[in-house]
Structure formats: C-alpha cells, structure tokens
Amino acid sequence: MSALAKPVARLIDEFSRLPGVGPKTASRLTFYLLRAPSEQAEALAEALRDLKANLVFCRECFNISETSVCSICADERRDRGVICVVEEPLDVLAIERTGDYKGLYHVLHGAISPMDGVGPGDLRINELIERLRRQLAQEVILATNPNMEGDATAMYLATLLRPLGVNITRLGRGLPVGGDLEYADEMTLARALEGRRQF
Description:
With 199 residues, this protein is an alpha/beta fold. The protein is built from 8 helices and 7 strands; from the N terminus they run H-H-H-E-E-H-E-H-E-H-E-H-E-H-E. It folds into 2 domains: 6-53, RecR Domain 1 (Helicase, Ruva Protein, domain 3, Orthogonal Bundle), CATH 1.10.8.420; 57-198, Dna Topoisomerase Vi A Subunit, Chain: A, domain 2, CATH 3.40.1360. The longest helix has 16 residues, at 38-53.
C-alpha cells in the first residue's frame, strides 16, 4: 500500500513521463504545487488545456501556431526563396533568436532514426517536397541537428531534393557534433547560418 495519496502519486507519475524529469524532480514539482496557492495550480492546468486545444500545425511549414498559417509564413517581409528545414519547433525558436535569418521554415517533427522506429514516412518530408513543387525556392538549408540521425536525415533529404533543381546547403559546423540546435547560443547559430555550405 502506497504512503502517498492517489492524486499526489498520479501527478508524480505524470511529471515523470516528461523528458528530463526524473522521479525526484517530479516529486518536488508535485509538492510545490500542493503548497502553492490554488490559483497557480489552476493556471497551470488551464495552460496545459490551452496547449492542446488552441494550437495547430501551420499548413505551410508545420510549425506550431494558433492559426492555420503561422506568423512567420504570413509575414510578407520574409524571403520566400529560402526555406530552412529543421527537426522541431524548438529549432525555429533557436534560429529566430539569432535575428539573422529572414527566410521561411519547414518543420519535420523529428529525424530519421531506425533504432527508435522513426522512418521517412513518419516525418513531414512529403509535405516539404509538395511545398517545393508549389513554391519555387532558390535555396533549402538543411538545419537538422549535427548528430547521426540529423546527418542521415539531411543526406536522405538531399537525395530527394536534388532532382527539384534547388540549391541545397547545410549549416556550417560551428555547432557541436551531437548537440541540439535548441541549446546553441545565438552567436554560434548565427555563424553556422553564415557558414552554410553546399550539400
């Protein structure tokens, strides 16, 4: 029989399912919320409900958005001739923080990883190809993470995109191998964008 009340044990279990949250952190978060004012717990619950109820994927780039077309795709000042392909929405935020990139994005929602059971059909690759057939782009920047899965995804994409006649570049290697874009600082990302090369 557990010494914890069922609601406490359930919340600890739910927090433990989040990436990077172990049992100790899950317990600390749960007991913090238990002691916090009711309004704070209600605000958190409402934010979680809103996250699932009020967000969609942009129909152009598949970034998260509150509308069918995200603010980046809707911005007429963006360079429509350049599309930066990233693995996750967090990567868009990381590149946007540099302030140097003025093109559009395409979010794959992952990388090819046979070990994890993720194949090309699980990503937004077909949507990228259809988009490039519709919207003439001069350059596609393959900004997948500089690790084995990211490199495999970039190579696969390059093979598919070459027949479309688009200039394919890859971020420069100012980024650490094995790292994730979301953790890179603005200066490193800016240099990687400037140092992109033919792929």
